[in-house]
Structure formats: C-alpha cells, structure tokens
C-alpha cells in the first residue's frame, strides 16, 4: 500500500516530540500505560530499520505526585525541584519500556544556552550523532532542573524543531492531545482539520488555541505551529497530530496536519544564526545598508551604521535593524561594542588599518526580515 505522505513514511531518521499532556495526569502524575504505548510505536519504527530521536516533556509533571503537589508549580525553585524528582522517574520508565524492545536509550538534557552558543550547538549535534551511530535512541528534554526563566525554551516544541536540524532528521512529528491544526476551536463550534500547510499564508486567518487541556503542559497549538514552520523552513516535513495517531503519522498515513518543507536545508551556521542564536545587541543601519544587504547580499560596513545597542563582544550574534524598526538580518559582529562608536558612519578607507574589515561579513549573516520587538 502506497503511503499518502511518502516524505514521512520514507524518512530514515525521525524526531518525535510528545507533550506532558500525553504522558501525565494531575491526579496520578506519570501515566505508564500511555508512555508504554508510545514506546511500542517507536519500537516498531526502530524494528523497521529507521532511526528515532524522542523529545519528551513530562519531567515536571512526573514529579508532582511524588512531591504531593496538586498543580504545576508557579515558582521557579519548586518547578526545578519537581523536575529533579520527575526526570529520574520519566527516564527510568522510558528505559524499562524500551528495554522490552531491546533498545538502549540515552538521556540528553539541554538548556537554551546549549543551543544559543555555537560551540555548544556543535557539541549537541556530535553527541546526538554518536548516540545514533551506537544504536542508542536519544531522549531529549529541556534541563528544567537548572534552566532559569531567562534561559529556557519555554516549551519543547521549539526545542524539537531545533533538534530536528541538529540531528539532521528527515521528518518531525509533534504529538499532543489534539489531532491536528483546525481552522477554528473545535471545542466551541464547527471547525475543519487543516490537512496540509504549504506556507504561513495558509494559516493567516486561523486562530490558534491551546492544545493542553489538563493543566500539566505549557505548550499550545500556536507553539506547535511556530515550531513546525521553523522545521519546515529548514527543509524538514512536519506532522502535527495526537499521540493516539503516532503510528499512523509515522507510517505516512493522512492523519493530522502536514507542514511541507519551505526551502532547502540551510547550513548549520545559517540555521543556528536564524533560529537558535541569542542576539547580544543591535546595530542600527541606514536605508542604503538595508538595500545592500537585501538586494546584493553585501556585508555590513561601518559607513551604513547609525547607532548601536547592547554590550556585545566580537563574534557575538547581533541584530541589524533598519530605520523602520524591522530586523533585516542577524549576524556575528567583528568588533566589541566599545569599539563601535568611533566607527559609525565612516568610510572604510578613512578608518585605521586594523578597523577596515567588515563589521558583519555576509558569510556570517542571515537575512531575517521581521519587525523588531521593543
């Protein structure tokens, strides 16, 4: 039987993300039966000769019952304590379940800082690649025991999209307790499942509601769509569906919502700059520099810079912002912030020899084109 979605069925390496709402309940914490059902699906994927990476939420939720907490903690310290207890239970339950399929698992705990720093990003890629080469199924989660509000992903959907690129995956499946993207809220009235999304315009008039209904998750349908577009722009097809339909989705059946690839797979550096880097500052540029960047893919020279913000160092990522407040590009700056005021608006030939190189070289830059946040 021919798969309706051959790009998913034929993917030799897949990333599967599952949310807390699919694995846990508030009264009982971790639901072993639900977890084992997902493991059975991934065990079949491995038995078919495919590779899988699992991005799993649930550490905090799994720690609620052992700590006799009745809801997701609102303060950071208690949330980290719940994650510390729950992560052990979560991974041990996974390890026992996968062992029944003869599969060894490895835990990969990441913070946003691990992917926003380029050297850490490379290390994460090497670790995942080596685990897969050794026949290990990596289980990835945000390291909630140490992540702070300032350095966290906030949900595992975006993390999964980044991991799909890190792992060089050929498909991404985002699972929750909702069976796809609808053109309205099916809980409040008639709504149609969106079968395929070819670009942002397909969802321009869709209001995205929350996907979590039981109070233990943090992600919603809006975060899944955002993550799906990140992966799609990286050349990775994505299916958003329910955990109950995981097997069908991975077999390429027409379930959930398919996001088709929106371009060629970018280089690791380009992808990191666009989606994973954390800007340390901004360079304000004039209209002439904006045109040079957009139309000629030129490097940014000091002559086109009108101002700066932030306390960045050389080789830090910065945003390049036009006069209208739109972020034109993101790139690695060649100078410290303290060196920049003396360079602003000056022609390269008028600068001392040690300052005549590009401020942001085109090979260290990626065009963005979105409105700047205040």
Automatic annotation (TrEMBL):
Keyword Ion transport: no
Domain PUA per the UniProt entry, residue ranges: 281-360
The protein, known as: Glutamate 5-kinase
Annotated binding of substrate, by residue: 57, 144, 156
ATP-binding recorded as keyword: yes
Purpose of the protein: Catalyzes the transfer of a phosphate group to glutamate to form L-glutamate 5-phosphate.
Similarity annotation: Belongs to the glutamate 5-kinase family.
Residues reported to bind ATP: 17, 176-177, 218-224
Main location: cytoplasm
Stored NCBIfam families: proB
InterPro entries registered for this protein in UniProt: AceGlu_kinase-like_sf, Asp/Glu/Uridylate_kinase, G5K_ProB, Glu/AcGlu_kinase, Glu_5kinase, Glu_5kinase/COase_Synthase, Glutamate_5-kinase_CS, PUA
Catalytic activity entry: L-glutamate + ATP = L-glutamyl 5-phosphate + ADP
Gene3D superfamilies named among the record's database cross-references: Acetylglutamate kinase-like (3.40.1160.10), PUA domain (2.30.130.10)
Stored Pfam families: AA_kinase, PUA
EC number: 2.7.2.11
